[in-house]
C-alpha cells in the first residue's frame, strides 16, 4: 500500500498518539513541540483525517465509566445467509462495529447502549430477527486498552 | 455538584472528534453555551478519572501498514487469569486484553488479546511470545483474523 503520509506527518501521528493538551491553543502547543506552525499542524490533521490515515482525532471515552453499557457478541452465520444477516445486524444503530472473522463463529460485533437493559434487549432483538444464537461475551475484566502504532 | 449530565453532554458533542480550529475548547464551549473554563476543567477531570482514556489521534491500522490484526484467544484456568491477563496486557504489541466468558462447548476461550503486525510472520512471533508467557496455563488457543469489516461507525458509546 502506498503511504498517504510523509515523515513530518509520521512525527505528528506518533506525537498525537501520546496525548493532546487541554489549554487555550492546543494545536499551537503541539506545533511548537514539533517545530511546525499551527496552520501546518491543522492542515496536516485535516488531510490525514480526510484520506483515512487517521480514523478519529479527539477524546476517547470509557463507555462504562460514562455510565453506558457495551459488549462483544458473536454468531454462527450460515454462508448462504451471510449478506442477509449482515443487513439485519448492521441496521441496529446500537451495533458500533461488525467484523467477519475466519471461525465457525464468523460474525463478531460490538453493541453499545445507554443502559444495561437496552443492551440486553438489543441482543434479544438481534437473536429474534436473525433466528440465530447470540453468544454474548461482555468483558469480565479489562487488563489493557491502548497501544501506540508507530507510523 | 453533580457533573454527570454535563459530562454526558460534552461527550455527545465531542465523541466524533475535536474541532480542527485554533481554539477547539472555545468552540465546544460556545456550542454548549458554557464558560470555556468549565469545559476545560471537565475535560481535565474526566481524563483524571479515566472517563476519557486519552485525547489524541486514532490511526487506521491498515493505513500505517499494520495489515495483520489478529484476535488471539486463549483458554487459561480462571483462577490464574487475572495475573496472566495483566502480563499479556503489558506486551507492546497488544492493544486490548480482556477476560471474557466461555460458552461451552462451542467456545472454550476466556482470555482475549488483540495483536497487530506488518506481516504474518510478525504476528506469528507475537503469538509465540504470548504462548511462551502463558506456558502450561495455555490449555488451547486460536487466532481469528477479520476477513471483512461489515460495519465501523466512528465509535459512539451512547447512540442517540
Short note summarizing the structure:
Chain A has 151 residues and is of the alpha+beta class. Chain A has 5 helices and 6 strands; from the N terminus they run αααββαββαββ.
How would you portray this structure in words?
- The complex is a heterodimer of chains A (151) and B (160).
- Chain A is of the alpha+beta class and 151 residues long.
- Helix content of chain A is 37%, strand content 24%.
- Chain A has helices at residues 7-16, 26-34, 38-50, 82-90, 116-130; strands spanning 54-61, 69-75, 95-101, 107-113, 135-136, 141-145.
- Chain A has a four-stranded antiparallel sheet.
- The longest helix of chain A has 15 residues, at 116-130.
- The relative contact order of chain A is 0.15.
- The mean pLDDT of chain A is 95.
- Chain B folds into two domains: 4-49; 62-145, 2-Layer Sandwich (Alpha-Beta Plaits), CATH 3.30.70.3460.
- Chain B has helices at residues 4-14, 24-32, 36-49, 81-89, 120-134; strands at 52-59, 68-75, 94-99, 111-117, 140-152.
- A four-stranded antiparallel sheet of chain B has the order 3-4-2-5.
- The longest helix of chain B has 15 residues, at 120-134.
- Chain B is elongated.
- Chain B starts with a helix and ends in an 8-residue tail after the last strand.
- Mean pLDDT of chain B is 93; it is low at 156-160.
- At the A-B interface, helix 1, helix 2, helix 3, strand 1 and strand 2 of A face helix 1, helix 2, helix 3, strand 1 and helix 4 of B.
- Strand 1 (54-61) of chain A pairs antiparallel with strand 1 of chain B, so a sheet runs across the interface.
**How large a portion of the residues of chain A is in β-strands, by DSSP E?**
15-25%
Mean pLDDT of chain B: 93
User: Which percent bin holds the helix content of chain A?
Assistant: 25-40%
Kindly identify the CATH topology of the largest domain in chain A.
Alpha-Beta Plaits
| Biggest interface, chains and residue tallies | A-B, 82 and 79 residues
Q: What's the multimeric state?
A: heterodimer
Structural class of chain B: alpha+beta
For this structure, what is the CATH class of the largest domain in chain B?
A: Alpha Beta
Helix share, percent of chain B: 25-40%
Q: N-to-C terminal Cα separation of chain A, in Å?
A: 14 Å
Sequence stretches where pLDDT stays below 50 over 5 or more residues of chain B: 156-160
Amino acid at each position: 500500500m502506498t503511504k498517504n503520509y510523509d515523515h513530518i506527518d509520521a512525527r505528528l501521528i506518533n506525537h498525537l498518539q501520546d496525548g493532546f493538551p487541554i489549554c487555550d491553543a492546543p494545536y499551537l502547543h503541539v506545533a511548537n513541540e514539533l517545530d511546525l506552525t499551527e496552520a501546518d499542524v491543522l492542515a496536516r490533521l485535516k488531510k490525514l483525517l480526510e484520506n483515512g490515515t487517521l480514523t478519529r482525532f479527539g477524546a476517547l471515552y470509557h463507555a462504562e465509566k460514562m455510565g453506558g453499557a457495551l459488549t462483544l457478541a458473536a454468531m454462527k452465520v450460515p454462508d448462504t445467509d451471510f449478506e442477509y444477516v449482515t443487513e439485519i445486524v448492521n441496521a441496529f444503530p446500537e451495533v458500533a462495529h461488525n467484523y467477519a472473522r475466519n471461525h465457525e463463529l464468523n460474525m463478531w460485533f460490538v453493541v453499545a447502549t445507554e443502559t444495561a437493559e437496552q443492551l440486553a434487549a438489543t441482543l434479544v432483538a438481534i437473536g429474534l430477527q436473525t433466528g440465530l444464537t447470540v453468544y454474548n461475551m461482555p468483558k469480565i475484566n479489562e487488563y489493557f486498552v491502548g497501544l501506540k502504532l508507530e507510523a | 455538584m453533580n457533573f454527570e449530565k454535563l459530562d454526558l453532554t460534552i461527550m455527545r458533542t465531542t465523541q466524533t472528534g475535536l474541532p480542527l480550529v485554533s481554539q477547539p475548547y472555545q468552540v465546544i464551549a460556545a456550542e454548549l453555551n458554557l464558560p470555556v473554563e468549565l469545559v476545560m476543567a471537565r475535560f481535565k477531570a474526566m481524563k483524571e478519572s479515566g472517563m476519557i482514556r486519552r485525547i489524541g489521534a486514532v490511526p487506521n491500522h491498515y493505513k500505517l501498514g499494520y495489515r495483520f490484526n489478529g484476535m488471539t484467544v486463549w483458554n487459561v484456568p480462571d483462577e490464574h487469569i487475572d495475573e496472566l491477563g495483566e502480563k499479556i496486557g503489558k506486551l507492546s504489541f497488544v492493544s486490548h486484553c480482556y477476560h471474557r466468558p466461555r460458552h461451552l462447548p462451542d467456545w472454550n476461550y476466556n482470555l482475549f488479546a488483540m495483536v497487530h503486525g506488518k506481516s504474518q510472520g510478525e504476528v506469528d512471533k507475537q503469538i509465540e511470545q504470548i504462548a511462551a508467557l502463558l506456558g502450561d496455563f495455555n490449555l488451547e488457543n486460536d487466532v481469528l483474523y477479520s476477513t471483512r469489516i461489515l460495519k465501523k461507525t466512528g465509535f459512539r458509546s451512547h447512540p442517540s
